[in-house]
Design goal:
four-stranded antiparallel beta sheet; single chain
Length: 156
């Protein structure tokens, strides 16, 4: 088992495009559906796997392009150290002053370490100034507990 890191930051309006953050339904619209529904399904089916937007379900990061992987570690503590570094780098940009507190961030890192050690994913999001959004995720791989059928992005 190992852990992959993902980071996304961008405009809040782009982050809010939820249709591009969820995988398409496994079954396409039935024949005879409205053309706009069929077109939207095709767009989402094509864009979801290639979009850099954070998926609504953390484990789906694994189907995104391997170029989005920011790091890979076998040890949960090493993956959590990456998270700690990212939190420190963005801390002064957090819109909520409570999120800037070093003790609060330390608790998040400890929690991530424990979750990864138990085979679970860990995902955090923060509003930044402008308005922008920061998404940080650590995803357990080979296998992923939530989606064991998803393959490691580094194998492809």
């Amino acid at each position: 088992m190992h852990h992959h890191a993902y980071l996304w930051t961008g405009p809040k309006a782009r982050f809010d495009q939820e249709a591009l953050r969820r995988p398409p339904h496994p079954d396409p619209p039935p024949p005879g559906s409205r053309p706009e529904l069929i077109q939207r399904y095709r767009e989402v089916a094509a864009e979801f796997p290639t979009s850099d937007l954070p998926p609504l379900e953390t484990s789906y990061w694994l189907i995104k392009p391997r170029s989005l992987v920011r790091g890979t570690w076998a040890a949960p503590a090493d993956a959590a150290a990456w998270l700690d570094g990212q939190l420190a780098a963005y801390r002064t940009r957090f819109a909520n002053a409570a999120h800037q507190d070093a003790r609060h961030l330390s608790v998040l890192v400890s929690s991530a370490t424990a979750r990864l050690a138990s085979g679970h994913d860990s995902s955090y999001g923060f509003y930044l100034e402008r308005p922008a959004y920061l998404s940080l995720a650590l995803v357990t791989c080979s296998p992923n507990r939530a989606r064991p059928n998803l393959h490691c992005p580094l194998d492809s």
